[in-house]
Automatic annotation (TrEMBL), chains A, B:
UniProt family annotation: Belongs to the serine/threonine dehydratase family.
Upper classification of the organism: Bacteria, Pseudomonadati, Pseudomonadota, Alphaproteobacteria, Rhodobacterales
The name this protein goes by in its record: Threonine dehydratase
SUPFAM superfamilies, A to Z: Tryptophan synthase beta subunit-like PLP-dependent enzymes (SSF53686)
Entry keyword set: Lyase, Magnesium, Pyridoxal phosphate
Organism, as annotated: Aliiruegeria lutimaris
GO biological process: D-serine biosynthetic process
Amino acid sequence: MNIDAIEAAAARLAGHARRTPLLSSPFLDEIAGRPVHVKAECLQHTGSFKFRGAWSAISALPEGTRGVIAFSSGNHAQGVALAAKLHGLPSVIIMPSDAPALKRANTAALGAEVILYDRATEDRDAIGERLAEERGLSLVRPFDDAQVIAGQGTCGLEIAAQAAELGIERATMLTCCGGGGLTSGIALALEARAPGIKVRTVEPEDSDDVARSLAAGELLRNAFQSRSICDAIITPAAGKLTFPIMQRLCGPGLSVRDEECLKAVALAFLRLKIVLEPGGAAALAAALFHGDALDDGPVIVTASGGNVDPAIFARALETLPD
Amino acid sequence: MNIDAIEAAAARLAGHARRTPLLSSPFLDEIAGRPVHVKAECLQHTGSFKFRGAWSAISALPEGTRGVIAFSSGNHAQGVALAAKLHGLPSVIIMPSDAPALKRANTAALGAEVILYDRATEDRDAIGERLAEERGLSLVRPFDDAQVIAGQGTCGLEIAAQAAELGIERATMLTCCGGGGLTSGIALALEARAPGIKVRTVEPEDSDDVARSLAAGELLRNAFQSRSICDAIITPAAGKLTFPIMQRLCGPGLSVRDEECLKAVALAFLRLKIVLEPGGAAALAAALFHGDALDDGPVIVTASGGNVDPAIFARALETLPD
């Protein structure tokens, strides 16, 4: 994996993915005690950065591809469904039968065939393999795939260019981190295009496998199922491709509490006028409330997704003073 | 007023105002039955397009200007306060004493001196004139000023360029309309740069002075104080500069109900991941719920501001199905 793959993905995404804005507010700078710049990937198609990786992977498939398949109950599902539809390809998304009705409906409305399975009694991978073989479908992995990482890396290319426009040469880049696709893509892009911007991961405190893995020097899994509301960035473990990249390029991992993410959601509403889901606000929460763990200087954060249930958003708003 | 003034304002705003994105969602297209493109000015500095006009006016003041003064309890106040601060000029904002505490606090935090007056017993204009004379301050009008209109017109230049990128030559442009600064600026910019895009105004139904004025062919005032929640676009009447421009360039005015604006706020949350105030969602509401009053073809709308009270936003979210 290197910058060439990311540049090639950027060429394939041009005119299809959005160049999302880098936002800021003097009110957030004051809370953080330093300049904070927010890469608003919630404004990407389907409401998260996942569209980039999905488009990158699908646009790199060989001619004659008959369709794609993905496992996801969340943002990856919607990104794959829309990217496949825009390529004129059928998509099958395999979701647990207890996935939220809204996410199922959205994914189906974006043109995917949604197939539900029972987490307790059925084997997801077996269902996927059978369908892929029967129908000749190509699997689009959520993060551990070179083309997916390259697609997410296009977000890093934009950050490098936007930071240069602002005159920022040295900064800390905080990423909301699940499996590490976005983090490793951004880290590769910044290594090549903005080497003074150093990446650190942010995770929910009860799902901090990447922070522990970086500290231990080996790929560790989460011991138990997280109960965090940051569902978008909860994964059992980082990937075989993503972890070595993070190990080479990222500083120590950070973690945040759910309450801090809810406060960051509310402050992004109040000061930036963007809608974030809790997992998409984790990096902003770290910038606002864990500045003591960061080097001096400006911070850039990913606001990686905005697919939040209205009830959770209403809860976040309650954290604001009257 | 012509396109040259807008181009000159754009040169002064370059690197200071944000180029806001033009957003869309297949879900909104489906509701509207046509493509809908949303110019997200809520993402502008201070959360509304008002920063453009304020920057344009303040950057055009003569050398030696000692400071600025404005009357506003809302978005204009914040735009002027920040633009003045960034020019290194003091600002005085005159607000009614019953203005929301958050707006007062925001305006003060952006560097303005906030002076409160009692709507019932004090004469706002007299206070402003006395202060302007005593301190040598320049008045920044909210809409009826050539440099303010030129600044808002930069939004129209961006729309023309963004529509061209999408291959849109003919469309209806719907603007959230109060005093007509944004509308007339956009109309002038589109006349010169995208003449196939025709502007129509959108107002709250109990504050539809521009629609009535356009129909009557003369400048009419609202007969009574509106009770709409769309406070950002409630004004007694359009301006002596803005109305003739709208009369020459705009089609018949539209109006929307408060409930429709709340639904549009909720749909912008759900589908675009942006935060709108009710008045900033009026044009989107017309696109979604009044398509029968529009010519065929794509619609572009201004999402002109996002400075909404959390309680009102929570009310909007309640309009979404579970």
